[in-house]
Amino acid sequence: LEKFSIIESTLREGEQFVNAFFTTEQKIRIASLLDAFGVEYIEMTTPCASPQSERDCAAIAKLGLKTKTLTHTRCNLEDVKLAVETGVNGVDVVIGTSSKLRDFSHGRSINQIIDLAQEVFEYLRKQNVEMRFSTEDTLRSDPEDLFQVYEAVDKIGVHRVGIADTVGIGNPRQIYDLVSQLRKRVKADIEFHGHNDTGCAIANAFAALEAGATHIDTTILGIGERNGITSLGGLVARIYSVNPEYVAKYQLPLLMHLDQVIARLVNVDIPFNNYITGFSAFTHKAGIHTKAVLNNPSTYEVLKPEDFGLTRYIHIAHRLTGWNAIRYRADQLGLELTDEEIKHITEEVKTLADLHPLTLDEVDSLLHAMRNSQPETEA
Ligand code: HCA
Ligand code: CU
């Protein structure tokens, strides 16, 4: 688990998000930010998609980033040759193996898939690029078909084999089992790519790592085809919770900026419940919570906001508040009030908050009024 790499696919899977259209400048900005964040790889749209896609892929490959550049292609010689010509560090080859995709998409048998893959990787092997082979719709493919194909490409020497939950149907137990079995069958590294249609994308990626996967595909905010894939921030949060050291290799304070930049570019808001960067991710409300958090934040926080360059917020102006939270606010305002007075104001806040939503200003006014009603004392 501690030795994993992120394959950041905002510039490939992310471009498949309905609202995504990235100009060359925007792609370069995203690539540079991801490089600064420290992801190990970025994956870009196939150069076969359009002439501009080809130019952009080549331009980013030339930037000299620390992160390795990849592009994504179908499993055929022509596409793969174009991919190599862009100058990327690696080529991610994919072909559908489920009967649905074999019957309704490319129409090939498992033996034909193996022949194609052999041809493609014999060529790639001589090109000094990282080679990855992945099966699309892995979860709905026959496991025996899969292992046959993976073993064949493993023999040719691919660096990574990929599992793709293309339709987001897998659950963590299934992913764990599949990756564990694959781990025993191939020498290559194992990559996991998971869609989020049924809400398991992060958990599935984590289960894959626990079972021996080495590479996880992510996108910023999880954008992608339909409702997207494992999000970069979500994966980071999940792994951080096991051991913050495992994600210390990344510039975590850049996450907020990355999420904000992508949200703006694809015209969505960062969801309120987003991992780390959602607006309420570090906001505490109920009196019991706020009291404990004020004493020791780890009581109700597994992620330390300061590790992500963020701060926590104690929400005090509401009827679930407690006098410790009100005391905390009085201290922030530099108002010396006795416990008696603080408790009195807390009761007032609760009474008012039962009538209408309160603002912090109203609480502050009560605190100031109490202080002003105190008899003057000698300084
Ligand atoms: C798709 C392809 C893919 C590929 C994943 C991979 C998927 O858009 O259908 O290369 O590992 O989800 O299967 O994104
Ligand atoms: Cu996908």
What does this structure look like?
The protein is of the alpha/beta class and 379 residues long. Helix content is 44%, strand content 13%. It is built from 14 helices and ten strands. It has an eight-stranded parallel barrel, surrounded by eight helices. Helix 8 crosses helix 9 and helix 11 crosses helix 12. The radius of gyration is 26 Å and the shape is elongated. It starts with a strand and ends in a 7-residue tail after the last helix. The mean pLDDT is 96. It binds 3-hydroxy-3-carboxy-adipic acid and copper (II) ion.
Q: What's the N-to-C terminus distance?
A: 59 Å
Bound small-molecule species? 3-hydroxy-3-carboxy-adipic acid, copper (II) ion
- Side by side, the strands of the main sheet go 1-2-3-4-5-6-7-8
How do the SSEs run, as a string of H and E? EHEHEHEHHEHEHEHEHHEHEHHH
Number of helices: 14
Beta strand count: 10
Q: Report the average pLDDT across residues.
A: 96
Radius of gyration: 26 Å
Helix content: 40-55%
Strand proportion, as a percent range, falls in 5-15%
For the sheet with most strands, the description reads: 8 strands, parallel, barrel
Alpha-beta content class? alpha/beta
Overall 3D geometry?
elongated
Uncertain parts? none
Q: Tags for this entry?
A:
379 residues; alpha/beta; eight-stranded parallel barrel; two-stranded parallel ribbon; 14 helices; 10 strands; 44% helix; elongated; binds 3-hydroxy-3-carboxy-adipic acid; binds copper (II) ion
Can you give me a brief rundown of this structure?
The chain has about 375 residues and is α/β, with parallel strands linked by helices. It has helices spanning about 25-35, 50-60, 75-85, 100-105, 110-125, 145-155, 170-185, 200-210, 230-240, 255-265, 285-295, 325-330, 340-355, 360-370; strands at about 5-10, 40-45, 70-75, 90-95, 130-135, 160-165, 190-195, 215-220, 285, 315. It contains 14 helices and ten strands.
